[in-house]
Specification:
This protein is α+β, with helices and mostly antiparallel strands. It has 14 helices and 13 strands. The strands form three sheets. The protein has a five-stranded antiparallel beta sheet, sandwiched between helices. A five-stranded mixed beta sheet has the order 7-9-10-12-11. A three-stranded antiparallel beta sheet has the order 6-8-13. Strand 1 (110-114) and strand 2 (120-123) form a beta hairpin. Helix 1 (2-26) packs antiparallel against helix 2 (28-58), helix 8 (198-234) runs antiparallel to helix 9 (239-271) and helix 10 (283-298) runs parallel beside helix 11. It is elongated and about 160 Å long. The N and C termini lie far apart (94 Å).
Length: 432
């Protein structure tokens, strides 16, 4: 401020001195003209700098504007520094804003920001997919106009957001279960968080079904055992009849034992998601073991063919591989009528994959059952499986063993002609 006043008084004094000199030499008229001309020079210079400043501001190039000399140099230098600092702050804020938006977009949960009138201020892409929204189209629309489920509208209107809300049959194909909850923030605004709990709901349903199925499977043999025991305790039976009852009781006890063993096997497989070991397994040795078990289970009712068409070994866990192969063969025996034939084969296909296949001449399986065969306790023919000692867990065990060996279970079946079950192993699991 002092510097500006000093320059101003210096200019006035200079104009006064020039006016006196001109007055003394050329008269009063020229003295006034020369004083005004001298005072006009800084005004013209200031106008030129103001015009340059306006042009730089309009083109947003103030920070790169060349600085004039004199008092304007200091003013424009300070202005340039201020503009640069403000732009840097704006860039920093914008980068932080973009990072927050990217983080919200990367979230697996739906996020919607609502204003005090429950209008959508912002939402991420996954919430658009959950509710069929389009942010550009639906911004500042009331959320209850777009999500018209009665339970959601009631949840919004009650204004009690302590508990979440579960919405079923949501999403593009009405197949999602969504858990959502509103959280207040800011000035009467709300954050709507949406979580896809479809898998959790399915897992919970599977758990309930599993407990119910185990209870049902165990109840039958226990009821039979208790009935036979009461009969043996209360009636004076002949030795032959008593032995017959004991045989039936042993059969039911063996069924429960098989069920418990399969449940333990399945639990161990589900608990261990790591790839199986890579020990060399001789297919001929496996075939010999499977053949003995198959002939014992069949008791001469079926004709068998066991073939090892390639000597390449399998790399895996011998106990698990034997269990998977045995389950496929035992399933074929249980569902193939007497005098039927079963062909068991190990080979390497044209692509170099190892294939263990079991082909039977049983009744076949309708196409609507194929996708569910590996579910626990799922049976196409429940009575026949129980009569032959099946637990309903065999194919579920095979599926988990296949997964641990990066193998694929393929089921081909034609009703009335039989079925083929193929375990296809990748090249990494085949040893020359």
């Amino acid at each position: 401020m002092i510097s500006a006043l000093t320059r101003f008084f210096f200019l006035i004094c200079l104009a006064f001195i020039v006016a006196l000199i001109v007055l003394y030499n050329w008269g009063a008229q020229w003295a006034i003209f020369s004083a005004i001309a001298l005072l006009s020079i800084p005004l013209v210079y200031s106008y030129i700098n103001l015009a340059r400043l306006e042009k730089s501001i309009q083109s947003d190039s103030l920070e790169s504007m060349s600085l004039p000399s004199g008092f304007w140099e200091e003013v424009l230098f300070r202005l340039q520094r201020l503009v640069k600092a403000l732009k840097q702050k704006m860039r920093t804020v914008e980068q932080q804003h973009n990072r927050f938006i990217e983080a919200f977009q990367a979230s697996p949960n739906g996020i919607l920001m609502l204003d005090e009138n429950d209008q959508i201020e912002w939402c991420n892409a996954i919430s658009e997919r959950f509710f069929g929204l389009n942010f550009k189209r639906d911004v500042m629309q009331r959320i209850n106009f777009l999500i018209r489920r009665p339970e959601f509208i009631q949840y919004i209107n009650k204004r009690n957001f302590d508990e979440p809300l579960l919405l079923e049959r949501m999403g593009p194909s009405s197949s999602l279960s969504l858990m959502l909850q509103l959280f207040p923030f800011g000035n009467q605004r709300h954050l709507l968080l949406v979580q896809n709990v479809t898998d959790l709901q399915k897992a919970d349903a599977m758990r309930r079904d599993f407990v119910a199925n185990v209870s049902h499977e165990m109840r039958t043999p226990i009821t039979v055992l208790m009935g036979f025991l009461e009969t043996v305790q209360t009636l004076d039976l002949e030795k032959g009849q008593r032995d017959q009852y004991f045989d039936m009781m042993m059969s039911q006890a063996q069924r429960m034992k098989s069920l418990v063993e399969d449940l333990l096997t399945l639990a161990n497989l589900e608990a261990n998601s790591l790839p199986a070991a890579s020990k060399v397994i001789n297919p001929e040795m496996l075939m010999a073991l499977i053949r003995n078990d198959a002939e014992a289970l069949s008791q001469g009712r079926h004709s068998f063919s066991f073939e090892v068409l390639n000597q390449c070994s399998i790399l895996g866990d011998e106990r698990e591989i034997l269990s998977a192969f045995s389950n496929l063969v035992s399933n074929a025996i249980r569902y193939t009528p007497d005098i039927g034939s079963i062909n068991v084969k190990w080979d390497i296909n044209a692509e170099g994959f190892g294939e263990f296949s079991v082909t039977d001449t049983g009744p076949g399986i309708a196409s609507e059952h194929l996708s569910r065969l590996t579910e626990r306790f799922y049976r196409v023919d429940r009575s026949r499986s129980r009569d032959t000692g099946g637990t309903g867990l065999g194919l579920a065990i095979v599926k988990h063993i296949a997964s641990r060996h990066q193998a694929q279970l393929i089921i081909e079946s034609t009703p009335g002609k039989g079925s083929t079950f193929i375990l296809r192993f990748p090249k990494e699991r085949i040893a020359p």
